[in-house]
UniProtKB/TrEMBL annotation:
InterPro entries: PTS_IIA_lac/cel, PTS_IIA_lac/cel_sf. The keyword Membrane does not apply. The modification Phosphohistidine is found at H76. The lineage of its organism: Bacteria, Pseudomonadati, Pseudomonadota, Gammaproteobacteria, Enterobacterales. The active site is at H76. It holds the Pfam family PTS_IIA. It comes from Izhakiella capsodis. Mg(2+) binds at D79. Keywords: Magnesium, Metal-binding, Phosphotransferase system, Sugar transport, Transferase, Transport. GO terms for biological process: phosphoenolpyruvate-dependent sugar phosphotransferase system. One of its GO terms (molecular function) is transferase activity. This is PTS system, cellobiose-specific IIA component. Its cofactor is Mg(2+). PROSITE patterns: PTS_EIIA_TYPE_3.
Length: 103
């Protein structure tokens, strides 16, 4: 197990998902391009799924017994993941609102 790479993968995939959600919202708001917004949201979900898979694997390896050391960078990575999860859900709602307004 290479914990440093796993942590960086959590951060980068979560950050990429976050960026994609903001791009999707911008597409919906500024251009009314809901097809592109949907494709960006799918990419965000895919990136989030990759990050979540890393998290799930780490949890499995830890087995709730503290086998994996928790450092500030790990907490930072988890924070990125939690924020990305929340933003993907919120982004879906914001895009749906823009679709309703655009009708």
């Amino acid at each position: 197990m290479d914990l440093e790479n796993d942590v960086m993968e959590l951060i980068t995939n979560s950050g990429y998902a976050r960026s994609l959600v903001f791009q999707a919202i911008r597409c919906a708001r500024e251009d009314g391009d809901f097809k592109q917004a949907g494709m960006l949201m799918q990419q965000a979900q895919d990136s989030l799924s990759e990050a979540h898979a890393v998290q799930t694997r780490l949890i499995g390896e830890d087995e709730g017994s503290g086998k994996i050391p928790v450092h500030l960078i790990m907490v930072h990575a988890q924070d990125h993941l939690m924020n990305a999860i929340m933003l993907v859900e919120l982004g879906k709602e914001i895009i749906m609102l823009h679709q309703k307004i655009d009708r």
